[in-house]
UniProtKB/TrEMBL annotation:
This is AAA family ATPase. It comes from the Bacteria. The keyword Nucleotide-binding applies. The lineage of its organism: Bacteria, Bacillati, Actinomycetota, Actinomycetes, Kitasatosporales. Residues 7-16 have a biased composition (Pro residues). It comes from Streptomyces lavendulocolor. Residues 1-23 are annotated as: Disordered. Residues 880-945 form the HTH luxR-type domain. Keywords: ATP-binding, Nucleotide-binding. InterPro entries: AAA+_ATPase, AAA_16, P-loop_NTPase, Sig_transdc_resp-reg_C-effctor, TPR-like_helical_dom_sf, Tscrpt_reg_LuxR_C, WH-like_DNA-bd_sf.
Length: 949
């Protein structure tokens, strides 16, 4: 009986499209991709496995890009679900895709077998010759691999039909080493036997012949970067990571669901999951049987689900049902029976799709068996649909207990539940509880709960004072993102008319907005002064202290000598007021001033004294502030491991709270610059730039640009550093920033200008900043300027003076405990000594720098001391009598480009200069070397006295 001719589908493999080469590694997959490349170049066989949507295909595509870039032939085979039951479908698609030359040399029987496989022969009644077909497929792959190395990618390998799997298994066993194979497989426990599943996967080789690489979920930090790439708000990274479990496909579905809702980020509930996001979750849950689903629902309703708790709550077979759910990739179980959903989208969808009656029964069952009274009260309230003041009072008391325990998120949830359980007849009490709930949510950084409480309150007959407090709570959960909240400020100002205490609180928030969102410290200071005056007029010491703190912060930015006096006044008020938290307090600003002044031991000791209290019962944003500041202090001190640990903790808390990661990424950039890697530091700095731009945060935009420019400078990207640091200069000028100690971009930009052959501009910048630093008493700022000034002296030929100044500056940095700056001075000294042709002195300085960095654990800086002399260094120490010694580093770079044949236009493009600048610089080079043509220049560069590169 004749079969239907097989037509290769659009997915049929073809040699990899050249246009796809050059793709960057998928977010968070660089290390995995490197491992895959290592396996392929070694063993030649690799299996990528993991949950659906985790990014296996994207990793395989990146590997294919790299192979194509090396000139390899890439063949992509992607069976579809229907192919699993179609004999020979995958093998036919493979044969149909290969170039004709691979089939030309096949003997007659093998050619006939291929024709039958591809439905090209009329003799189908007898079927194909299995031996001839095996040999044909093996011969085709071998012929391809003899022409050039081949990478065969088999995507969704579990969908391959049994006959094709048998043919490929035989062919791959005989294939030469130049044929490498990546199989992408979704394991059966995840597939669930649905329409998209091919059933049990069929191996293409013996297990020992290949390495199995698991593609893991993304981390929360990587999730933030993924969102940035897809133009979704990075501040949602923590919540989207929890909702998706780190699965990129789920994460993007959640993010796009949020975008589809058109709900402003700051006004959104926890996540308005609907549409495509819910559909993805439902498809994942579909294979679960009714008993498994019932047990999972109870787990979704519980605060701390365990196997024992679910069994006591009415699921006697919970162990078996949870084991089935774990095999399906829906949950994970720890040894003690704790249940954790692999993605937060799953429990929320279970609850969302269940009727209230069933949810009520579940909460009632859990309330009866909960061993924690706080949890029991929560479940009883959620099982109840009738307002009850006695129950509301119990819930409010449970919220207080949760707050005392340090569980601010649960306290916020319970505070709102208490308000919603309060009977309508007790209108005033309900409003009071709604205000309390909004403020509790602000302390927990739970914008979703703050907005719910505020929306409920504003829909009722609330007093102006209640409305202002609720709106301020919403503002306090916005973090760095204050650009879309103007309407809230307007209403708060209107409601606070004639109420000095309320107006003081509103003006205080405006003072913060003016500097963060508007980049206007002058206006911020004015608002802070008004807030302090209003607060003092009504005896509100707490608000007055906060306002004076903000005024002192702006005074420092603006270079006012009154900053410390104002801060001391705020600190005195705080001592009597005893605020609950530390964020935005005079106490934390005092510590930051110590950081700016490089009184680092003092700053560190005060931070560590605060840490236990904040970790035990402080708001989450207090902990984020403390860890971030600790990271900055330890990075500056050269305590690199501690800096990395604190910065990582700050980022984890930031993402968990759903706040903008820009500040935490900035801290990580500083920590990585000190003791991690320059490449990672640049990556974090770029992320911080994007997040700060996204949030409209002018303060951290300048800081993250500074961190990026500094890394670019020390790694030799002079053009990039100039562009970045000039942005910092322009941003700081627009914000009227005067004090050079708060962001030390001046010395970095001056050094970048010097490296870019703009000596006069570098000297002018140092001349501008020096008197300001002197007037304000910023001693270590002056030391940084001295380091760069020494480099200017060396560039002008005054190398003896430069060396003396660098020696003294390094010693003074060491005296201040700034070991990384000390080491940086020693590296500069080594380069100056090379210019002086003092080889042993240069070596001694570099060894001293290496010792400093090694003691500090400053790995990236230690790497700089181990590098061979750069071209610039070589230019600084030419052979005796060489005319090249008269060229600056920038001139030597241009001379080499031109000597290698670059036109003026090409050299200008590569050096990020104008053509006129290149022409003028080239004229100076000709004069210094006494040459008249490019040919003579090339001869001078390549002569026996020319420095080696």
């Amino acid at each position: 009986m004749r079969s239907t001719p097989y037509a290769p589908a659009p997915y049929a493999p073809t040699p990899y499209a050249p246009g796809r080469t050059g793709r960057a590694a998928p977010v968070g997959r660089a290390e995995l991709l490197a491992r895959l490349e290592h396996v392929l170049l070694g063993r030649g066989r690799a299996l990528l496995t993991g949950a659906p949507g985790v990014g296996k295909t994207e990793v395989a595509q990146a590997a294919a890009d790299q192979a194509a870039a090396r000139g390899e032939t890439v063949v992509w085979l992607a069976p579809q679900p229907a192919d699993h039951d179609m004999p020979g479908a995958a093998a036919a698609a493979l044969i149909a895709s290969v170039p004709a030359f691979a089939l030309d040399g096949l003997p007659g029987p093998q050619r006939d077998a291929v024709a039958v496989l591809c439905r090209e022969s009329a003799a189908l009644e007898s079927g194909w010759d299995p031996i001839a077909l095996r040999l044909a497929v093996a011969s085709v792959l071998r012929t391809l691999a003899e022409q050039s190395p081949v990478l065969l990618v088999v995507d969704d390998a579990q969908r391959i039909d049994a006959d094709s799997a048998d043919l490929l298994r035989f062919a791959l066993h005989l294939a030469p080493p130049t044929l490498r194979v990546v199989a992408v497989e979704t394991p059966a426990p995840y597939a669930g036997g649905g329409a998209d599943s091919g059933g049990a996967p069929l191996p293409l080789w013996v297990a020992s012949e290949a390495d199995v690489l698991l593609v893991p979920p993304l981390q929360a930090d990587e999730m933030a970067e993924l969102l940035v790439h897809h133009r979704l708000p990075s501040r949602l990274a923590g919540r989207i990571h929890r909702a998706s479990g780190g699965n990129p496909r789920l994460a993007l579905a959640v993010g796009r669901s949020l975008a589809d809702s058109r709900t402003p980020v700051h006004h959104a509930e926890a996540l308005p999951l609907s549409g495509r996001a819910r559909d993805v979750a439902r498809r994942m849950l579909a294979p679960a049987s009714a008993p498994v689903r019932a047990t999972l629902l109870l787990a979704a309703l519980a605060l701390r689900p365990t196997t024992a708790l679910l069994r006591r709550a009415g699921r006697p077979t919970a162990e078996a049902e949870l084991a089935a759910a774990e095999r399906a990739g829906l949950i994970s179980l720890t040894e003690d029976g704790t249940v954790a959903f692999t993605a937060g989208l799953l429990p929320s969808t279970l609850v969302h799709d269940t009727c209230w009656t069933e949810r009520s029964r579940g909460h009632a069952a859990l309330a009866a068996v909960a061993d924690d009274p706080v949890e029991a009260v929560r479940h009883r309230a959620l099982a109840n649909d009738v307002p009850d003041e006695d129950l509301a009072a119990e819930v409010a008391e449970a919220a207080d207990t949760a707050r005392r325990r340090g569980n601010s998120a649960l306290a916020a949830e319970l505070a709102l539940l208490a308000a919603e359980t309060t009977p309508a007849g007790l209108g005033r009490r309900r409003l009071e509880r709604l205000v309390d709930a909004a403020e509790e949510a602000a302390r927990a950084a739970r914008a979703d709960l703050a907005v719910r409480a505020a929306a409920d309150l504003l829909a009722r007959d609330a007093t102006p004072a209640d409305r202002v407090r609720a709106r301020l709570a919403v503002l306090d959960t916005a973090g760095q993102g204050l650009t879309d909240l103007d309407e809230i400020y307007v209403h708060a100002m209107e409601d606070s008319e004639g109420e000095p205490a309320l107006r003081a609180a509103v003006q205080l928030r405006l003072a913060v907005k003016y500097v963060l969102a508007d980049g206007d410290p002058v206006r911020s200071r004015t608002a802070a002064v008004e807030s302090a005056a209003l607060a003092m007029s009504v005896g509100d010491r707490h608000t007055a202290a906060q306002a004076l703190t903000q005024q002192a912060r702006m005074d420092r930015v603006l270079g006012s000598p009154d900053a410390e006096r104002t801060l001391a006044e705020a600190r005195a008020l705080e001592m009597t007021d005893r605020p609950l938290g530390v964020r935005n307090t005079a106490q934390i600003l005092t510590i930051r001033h110590a950081l700016f002044d490089d009184r680092l031991t003092e700053a560190r000791d005060q931070l560590y004294a605060l840490l236990p209290l904040v970790e035990r019962r402080g708001p989450v944003e207090d902990a984020i502030e403390l860890f971030r500041t600790l990271a900055e202090v330890e990075a500056r001190r050269g305590q690199c491991a501690a800096a990395l640990a604190h910065a990582g903790r700050s980022l984890a808390l930031t993402l968990e709270a759903g706040l903008s990661p820009g500040p935490a990424w900035y801290a990580l950039a500083l920590a990585e610059t000190a003791g991690g890697s320059f490449a990672r530091a640049a990556g974090y700095a770029r992320r911080s730039v994007r997040a700060s731009e996204e949030e409209g945060d002018h303060v951290f935009l300048s800081r993250s640009l500074y961190a990026l420019g500094r890394v670019q400078l020390v790694t030799g990207d002079v053009a990039g550093a100039l562009e970045t640091l000039r942005r910092v200069r322009d941003n700081e000028a627009a914000q009227c920033a005067v004090d050079p100690s708060m962001l030390r971009w001046h010395e970095e930009l001056a050094e970048a200008l010097l490296a870019g052959d703009a000596l006069e501009e570098a000297q002018a910048l140092l001349a501008d900043v020096g008197p300001v630093a002197e007037r304000l008493g910023r001693t270590t700022v002056l030391l940084g300027c001295d380091r760069v000034y020494a480099l200017c002296l060396a560039a002008g030929g005054r190398t003896d003076e430069a060396a003396d100044l660098l020696v003294g500056t390094a010693d003074r940095f060491a005296g201040h405990g700034l070991v990384l700056e000390q080491g940086r001075c020693l590296i500069a000294l080594a380069r100056v000594e090379r210019r002086r042709r003092r080889r042993s002195a240069a070596q001694a300085a570099m060894q001293a720098a290496a010792a400093v960095f090694e003691r500090a654990g400053a790995e990236p800086w230690l790497g700089l001391t181990a590098e061979s002399p750069s071209p610039a260094d070589a230019a600084a120490a030419p052979a005796a009598g060489s005319a090249l010694s008269r060229l600056t580093e920038a001139e030597l770079r241009l001379a080499r480009l031109v000597g290698e044949g670059a036109s003026n236009q090409e050299a200008a493009a590569r050096l990020y200069l104008s053509v006129k600048t290149v022409e003028a610089r080239l004229t100076r080079i000709y004069q210094k070397l006494d040459v008249r043509s490019r040919a003579q220049l090339a001869t001078a560069l390549n002569g026996p006295a020319a420095p080696s590169r």
